[in-house]
């Protein structure tokens, strides 16, 4: 690296002032360079000296006033009070804080800017008033004439907003009076702010000569964009021979008037006529032919991942390095991506990206819903967020109990009284506020509880303590202001709190002279490093395309010498270019992906350099690697040891029952059978964003049972006409049943949530379809059995390790009936209701009676029929499947691809074949030579919780090929 700017300053100071610097004041724009200059002075002198006095520019100017510095929030409340007093004098209705807040920030910002740049308040606001009035009064002009007038005032369109314009005309006229009242308020309270001090010094109300008198010389180092107050005072002090100015600049952009990076220093030197204490500005950038490494990443956060590899390769001992965040939102992903090297973070860790803010934001979001929407319930997502935040420290037992309660009832919204978090450090988190006066005290209490909890845990991290304390300070300031205002809505208070705490950050301690420095571009003023890594160098970010909100249109700002967007661009350009003067390792990163927040283009400053300079750009485009997961062995569970002992104890000795569902689970995936029925690994309770199909099936089964139960066991046949009459009862029955399933009392459709209403609609259509189908296709019916899950258990003999054993199988009988067809034929049926994608058609019986069965509904229905026939002696049951979506077209009786119906002799033969298949399958389940493995041909549903275990399942042909 060439001799850095501050090293040159240190050398010049020694040459000018020798060893006694006690009467020298050194002023910077910010604190960071002070540490670096002290180091350079120590290196330059090599021995102890009398130290100069160091200040930031605001600290130095504040020496001129004894008044107390007033906070931004206090200024806001003053402005609100004074504005309403003026409205009262004018005979207008006073504004609420909610109405005034959006414009208050803009007014204060404009007042401050006008002070800094010494603009006459009366002049600029009256000119704004006049140009605005022209815009209103000349609406009859032609479009071309209106376009001409608009260039003087572009804040509002000409057509359709006369009421708003009139209101702002009154505001423009009132603002000079408000400005004077505001300044008088500060005087009365013996308070001040920085813009006031600047104007008072420049206007002579404060003694600028007395300010510099105690010092032999004041050295202003590294200043770039001066406001008019600074320019006037600096020129005055230079003429009094009290000030020296050290400008960090390069001839490359200073002497070329087309280069925006040199805009302000050209003004300082050539217009304000401030002299550069370092003499002629060198031309370093113009003569450099070094490399600039330009990295195009595939995504915003990917820049930090890419930087990790670059740092590992480039960081060497003895070199100074800095990561400069053009996009400061990259700080947290950057911290998560850094290699194991020493770092110091200047930017500070933002509250908004800390777990503490997560708790505060959740509390505010919850109470916004309660207040604004008058809710007595809270969404399950908000409860889950609370339960899973580590700072809440709720016990595992209470968390699990609450999650199970929510999951079992599928509660998308939970009543406050049902939310129990007593073991948490924030047990009253969800308690509704009694009044708007409780907002800030409750939040402060919440912060106190977090502070106590963190302190008890271990030694509290300094960063967390700082964030909590700074947040409390801001809340206390807001509380003082709110106390003077009669009534503020909870919604507005929360909105203002959000804005007030958003800028809070906590410094992360480190050594500013050692290790990798992390800072924003603005904080890097005056500093130089061997290696720089600039993150977020995208067009639209470097420079930014937006400016601060203002009521002063661009034409007026330009006329009065106020900052405009071009000034912001010039400052950004300077902050970027100055690092090219000294750094040898230059690495620039940008996001090359086009999305809603990125143009996908590098900054125009980079393109400009590439076109004009002699730098050699080395471009690297990040390629996302195609990741092949490491080859893992297929998961296979042998039936040995504890697994076999458990299976024997459970099924062979303990006679645990095997259902039709367990059988088809095994056919589709033996590994899933192991998880569900042997290891008994259950899904944790959860809320589904779609209603569960098994709940829909339960509702339909139970409603059908309710309708048909009065007819069970009757000797005589009942006409199916009664089923048509039952259709009118279906909707009410389904509402009651959905309520029972979710543990809620419901009698009306409006009491169900949105997904439950969808379930109601589908269940209603299904049940009505079943009833109408029976009424249309049969004359009469007789119910033999209905929804019995207890009485149909059967001992079934199988061979286990060459020895005959018995297992118990059982069937849940949905419905067994006898029906009389239109032709007078009597049929005995076993009926199964299905709500999924099941079908009555199959291609071949061989594919049904096989692993990964093609029709599990047929397997299950034959299973039920077999158990029922064996237990009751009733024979010749025909298997019927009620699938509402297909039953009108395809009927309910299973049939093969060639039209063979499951009835008569064909059915009898298939029933015999099924018993053989059942025995072979059960014997395979208990065959110790056959491990539990997943069938890779089986269809896996997205909702399957065991998917992770199937990913390495190997197809049979793959094994052969290997």
Automatic annotation (TrEMBL):
Gene3D superfamilies: 3.90.320.10
Source species, domain of life: Bacteria
Domain PD-(D/E)XK endonuclease-like: 658-936
SUPFAM superfamilies: P-loop containing nucleoside triphosphate hydrolases
Pfam families, A to Z: PDDEXK_1 (PF12705)
InterPro entries registered for this protein in UniProt: P-loop_NTPase (IPR027417), PDDEXK-like_dom_sf (IPR011604), PDDEXK_AddAB-type (IPR038726)
Origin species: Sphingobacterium litopenaei
Lineage, uppermost ranks: Bacteria, Pseudomonadati, Bacteroidota, Sphingobacteriia, Sphingobacteriales
Protein name, per record: PD-(D/E)XK nuclease family protein
């Amino acid at each position: 690296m060439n001799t850095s700017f501050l090293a040159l300053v240190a050398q010049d100071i020694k040459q000018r002032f020798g060893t006694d610097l006690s009467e020298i004041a050194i002023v910077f724009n910010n604190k960071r360079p002070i540490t670096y200059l002290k180091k350079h002075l120590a290196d330059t002198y090599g021995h102890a000296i009398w130290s100069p006095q160091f200040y930031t520019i605001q600290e130095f100017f504040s020496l001129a006033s004894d008044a107390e510095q007033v906070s931004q929030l206090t200024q806001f409340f003053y402005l609100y009070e004074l504005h309403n007093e003026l409205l009262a004098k004018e005979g207008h209705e006073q504004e609420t804080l909610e109405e005034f807040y959006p414009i208050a920030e803009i007014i204060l910002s404009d007042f401050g800017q006008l002070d800094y740049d010494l603009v006459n308040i009366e002049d600029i606001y009256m000119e704004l008033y006049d140009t605005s009035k022209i815009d209103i009064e000349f609406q009859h002009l032609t479009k071309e004439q209106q376009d001409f007038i608009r260039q003087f005032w572009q804040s509002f369109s000409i057509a359709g907003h006369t009421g708003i314009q009139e209101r702002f005309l009154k505001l423009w006229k009132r603002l000079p009076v408000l400005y004077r009242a505001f300044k008088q308020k500060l005087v009365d309270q013996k308070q001040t702010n920085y813009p006031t001090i600047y104007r008072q010094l420049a206007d002579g109300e404060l003694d600028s000569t007395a300010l510099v008198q105690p010092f032999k010389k004041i050295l202003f180092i590294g200043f770039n964009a001066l406001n008019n107050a600074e320019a006037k005072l600096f020129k005055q002090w230079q003429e009094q021979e009290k000030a020296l100015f050290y400008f960090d600049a390069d001839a490359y952009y200073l002497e070329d008037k087309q280069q925006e990076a040199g805009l302000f220093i050209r003004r300082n030197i050539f217009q304000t006529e401030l002299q550069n204490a370092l003499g002629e500005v060198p031309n370093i950038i113009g003569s450099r032919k070094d490399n600039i490494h330009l990295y195009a990443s595939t995504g915003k956060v990917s820049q930090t991942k890419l930087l990790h590899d670059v740092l590992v390769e480039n960081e060497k001992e003895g070199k100074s390095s800095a990561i400069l965040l053009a996009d400061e939102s990259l700080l947290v992903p950057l911290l998560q991506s850094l290699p194991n090297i020493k770092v110091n973070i200047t930017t500070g860790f933002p509250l908004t990206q800390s777990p503490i803010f997560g708790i505060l934001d959740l509390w505010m979001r919850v109470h916004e819903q309660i207040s604004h929407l008058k809710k007595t319930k809270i969404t399950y997502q908000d409860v889950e967020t609370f339960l899973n935040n580590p700072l809440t420290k709720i016990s595992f037992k209470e968390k699990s109990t609450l999650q199970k309660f929510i999951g079992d009832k599928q509660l998308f919204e939970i009543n406050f009284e049902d939310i129990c978090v007593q073991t948490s450090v924030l047990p009253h988190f969800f308690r509704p506020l009694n009044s708007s006066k409780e907002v800030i005290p409750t939040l402060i209490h919440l912060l106190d509880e977090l502070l106590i909890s963190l302190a008890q845990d271990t030694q509290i991290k300094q960063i967390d303590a700082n964030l909590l304390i700074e947040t409390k300070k801001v809340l206390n300031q807001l509380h003082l202001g709110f106390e003077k205002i009669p009534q503020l809505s909870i919604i507005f208070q929360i909105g203002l709190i959000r804005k007030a705490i958003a800028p809070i950050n906590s410094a992360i301690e480190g050594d500013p002279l050692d290790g990798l420095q992390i800072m924003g571009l603005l904080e890097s003023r005056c500093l130089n490093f061997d290696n720089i890594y600039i993150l977020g160098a995208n067009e639209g970010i470097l420079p930014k395309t937006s400016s601060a909100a203002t009521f002063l249109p661009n034409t007026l700002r330009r006329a009065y010498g106020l900052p405009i967007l071009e000034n912001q661009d010039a400052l950004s350009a300077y902050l970027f270019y100055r690092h090219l003067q000294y750094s040898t390792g230059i690495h620039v990163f940008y996001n090359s992906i086009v999305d809603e927040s990125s143009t996908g283009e590098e900054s125009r400053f980079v393109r400009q350099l590439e076109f004009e300079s002699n730098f050699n750009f080395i471009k690297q485009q990040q390629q996302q690697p195609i990741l092949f997961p490491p080859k893992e062995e297929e998961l296979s569970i042998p039936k040995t040891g504890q697994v076999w002992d458990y299976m024997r104890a459970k099924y062979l000795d303990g006679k645990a029952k095997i259902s039709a569902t367990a059988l088809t689970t095994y056919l589709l995936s033996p590994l899933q059978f192991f998880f569900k029925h042997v290891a008994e690994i259950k899904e944790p309770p959860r809320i589904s964003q779609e209603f569960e199909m098994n709940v829909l099936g339960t509702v339909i089964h139970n409603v059908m049972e309710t309708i048909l139960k009065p007819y069970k066991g009757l000797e005589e046949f009942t006409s199916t006409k009664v089923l048509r009459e039952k259709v009118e009862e279906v909707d009410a029955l389904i509402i009651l049943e959905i309520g029972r399933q979710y543990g809620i009392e419901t009698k009306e459709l409006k009491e169900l949530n949105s997904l439950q209403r969808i379930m109601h609609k589908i269940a209603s259509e299904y049940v009505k379809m079943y009833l109408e189908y029976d009424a249309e296709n049969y004359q009469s019916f007789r119910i033999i059995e209905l929804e019995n899950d207890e009485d149909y258990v059967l001992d079934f003999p199988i061979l286990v390790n060459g020895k005959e054993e018995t297992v118990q199988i059982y069937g849940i009988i949905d419905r067994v009936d006898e029906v009389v067809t239109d032709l007078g034929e009597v049929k005995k049926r076993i009926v199964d209701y299905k709500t999924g994608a099941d079908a009555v058609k199959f291609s071949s019986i061989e594919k049904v009676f096989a692993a990964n069965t093609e029709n599990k509904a047929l397997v299950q229905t034959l299973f039920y029929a077999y158990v029922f026939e064996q237990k009751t002696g009733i024979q010749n049951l025909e298997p019927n499947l009620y699938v509402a979506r297909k039953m009108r077209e395809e009927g309910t009786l299973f049939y093969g691809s060639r039209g063979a119906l499951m009835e008569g002799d064909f059915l009898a033969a298939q029933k015999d074949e099924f018993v053989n298949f059942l025995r072979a399958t059960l014997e395979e389940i208990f065959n110790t030579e056959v491990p539990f493995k997943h069938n890779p041909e089986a269809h896996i549903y997205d909702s399957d919780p065991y998917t992770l275990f199937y990913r390495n399942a190997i197809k049979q042909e793959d094994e052969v090929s290997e």
